[in-house]
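Every protein is a chain of amino acids, and every chain bends into a shape of its own. The protein below has been through that process, and both of its lines are reproduced in full.
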Amino acid sequence: MRAIWKGAVSFGLVNVPVRLYAATENHDVQFRQVHRTDGGRIKYQRVCSIDGELVSYDDIAKGYETEDGDMVVLTDEDFAELPTKSSKEIAVEKFVPADQIDPMLLDKCYYLEPDKAAAKPYLLLRDALETEQRMALVTVSIRTRMTMAVLRVKDGVIVMQTMLWPDEIRNPDFAALGDDQEASEKELAMAHLLVEQLAGDYDPSEYEDDYARALQELVRAKVEGGEVTDLPKPAEESGEVVDLLAALAKSVEKAKAARGEASEPPPEAKPAKKAAAKTAAKKKAG
């Protein structure tokens, strides 16, 4: 694993230098969009929906579309005025009971590794969290934006898990779950019986993403069976320059023709004319 962030956990007068590692990874098979007939990759162009022109990255800005369909364009200067922070501190705000944190608020997970010199205060914080059965509610700045997170312990390591803001949790307003809907005692007894029959402990080894595994086997079988498309190498950069020069030359000729001016032969044709004239003169003299 490679550290993606370095900073320090601070609580009270204690500072614990740590490194941050992504605790999860995506094992989904990644695909590319390709041309069905020859396997060529599909490329997309940045085209303006109003004038149809190609737009370079330098001319792209962020826009917010209003409910009326209008567009508010935000500049770099606008974003520079927003409250951002680039602190390297994971500041503990308070230690809260673990059961007070709704799992729905939890987002991305990161492992915290202490510097060698900070192993003792790291272990002190870890053991305190486990003994008190609490989580440390912290604020941290990741990519200039301040966010809330919690510190908890998993397998002897402190894990930082970022949190959603409370207003990002949607309200489940379902009409079908009204107060007038109640289960009978007989139905509840049957439900309890079913729960007891299926009761057990969670064992991660019992579960596997069979779709991803089958997909990987499918791709491997195609590779081993020779069902692989050899893609042509991209054209060299020099060829693109020649094409550009040719296009510019044609544009110049069209512009001159539109003004009624006589077109001049391309630069490389002039030496050929001179050589032909010299050859003709030699034949005449001979």
The longest helix spans residues 237-258. The beta strands are 5-11, 14-22, 62-65, 71-74, 89-97, 106-114, 134-142, 145-154, 157-163. The radius of gyration is 34 Å.
